[in-house]
Amino acid sequence: MSVADSYHLGDRTRSDGCPGALSMHKAKDGRIGRVRAPGGRVTSRQWEALAHMAETFGDGHIHLTTRGNIQIRGISDRDMDAFAKACEAGGFLPSREHDKVRNIISSPMAHSRYAECDVAWIVAELDDALIASRDVIGLSGRTLFGIDSGEGDIMAQQPDFGVVLSTTNPKVAQIIVGGCLIGLFVSHDDAARALVAAASRWQEIRGTAWRVQEKPEVLPDLIDTIASAVECLDIDHVTHDHASTIAPPQRGAFLDDPRPIGWLPHPETGEVSLGCSLAFGHMSADAARILAAVDRPIVVTPWHSLVIHDLPEVIAERLVEMLAPRGVLFDQQSPWVQVSACPGIATCEKSHSDTRADAVSFIRSMVDATDEHTPDAPRGHNNLRVHFSGCVRRCGHPQGAYVDYLATADGEYEVTEVTSPTPV
Questions:
Q1: b/e for 344-364, b at 16 or more Cβ within 10 A?
Q2: Nearest-10 crossing angle of helices 285-292, 44-57
C-alpha cells in the first residue's frame, strides 16, 4: 500500500470519533477532551482555566493539536461531566450542540496590532455565525475552517471552507472550498455568511464523507450555494479596485515552513512577538499559568506552537527566561521543533511502537551528531520535517513535505518522503 493510499483509510460510516468537550475519545491513558479556540485566540482567563483542567482532570499537561485545538488527556469517566462544566465556565463551550463544529484556524501573525490585515473580527463573525446556525450541527469534527491573511500559511493547511484576504484591498477576500481557491471573490463583510452557507449545504449532501476533498463532485453545488447566498464581486471590479489577485499555494503545494518561531520584532515600535514551539505539542500547567499572567494577544497555531503578540522587549526577554526551562522552544532549527510524533503505544491501542520514545532517540542522535561537529550533521532528511506514526492513521502528521516514519513493529519503521499528504 502506498503512503497516499493510506491517508484514505478509515471507515467513514462509523460515528465521528473526533473528540470534543462532551463526547470524548477513550484512549489507553483515559479520556481525551478537546476544546475549540476559534482562530487560535486564548485569553488570560482561559489559560488559567486550562491549567486548572489539566491538573484537576488530566495528566497535568495541555496538548495542542494540528487543527489548532487544545486537548486534555487522561480524564476519568467519573470526571467527564465536571470537565464539560469547566469548559463552559472557561468560555470554551458556548453551545453544546456546536461542540465539535467550531474548528477555525487563522494566520497567527495577523492578530498583532501591527498587522496590516486584521483577521480577529472575521474569526469572531464566523464563530458567531456557526453557533447561530442549526444547519451545521452534525458536521464532522474534522471539518476545518480557515482565515488566511494573505500569507498563504492557512491556505497551506487545506481548510474545507475559508477565505484568503487581499493584502492590498481591505474589502476583498477569495473563497476557499476543499482546500483550494474556487475563483469567487466576496467582501470581508460577507465572508462569514458565505462560509456558513457552504458548510450548511455540505452537511446536507456530504453523506458519509468527512472532508470536502473526499467528494470533489459536489464542488459545483457548493460554488452555486455561495453565489446564491452572498453577492460575489466581479473580477473586473476587483482588478479595477487594485485588489491583489492573491496567489497563495494551491492544493498540493505548500509553504516550506510557515511556523513563526522565535523573536519576531515589529520594526520601529520597540515591541516584539514571541513564537513559541512545543515538543510534541505538550505544555505544562505551570507554563500555561505564566501565559495567563500575560495581558497580550496569544494565538494557538496548527503547528504545535503559539504566538504571544505585542510585547515590550524587556517583557519578552523575561518570558523567554521563564518559559525556556519549562520546555518551550524558541529556535526554529532545533531538532525538537523539526521532529513530531503521534502519542504512540503508551496511550493508543492501534500503535505498533513507542513513537515518542523512538522520536526522542532520533532527536538525540541528531544532537549528538551536531555536538561532534559533523559537517553533514542531520536535521531530519534534506532539512525536511520528520513525523513518527504508530499506525497508518498517521495522527498529527504535518502538512507539506515531510519524512514519514511509519511503525510496522516495535521499533521498526517504513520510511517515506511525503510531498503532499491528503488532509484527514
A1: bbebbeebbbbbbebbbebbe
A2: 160
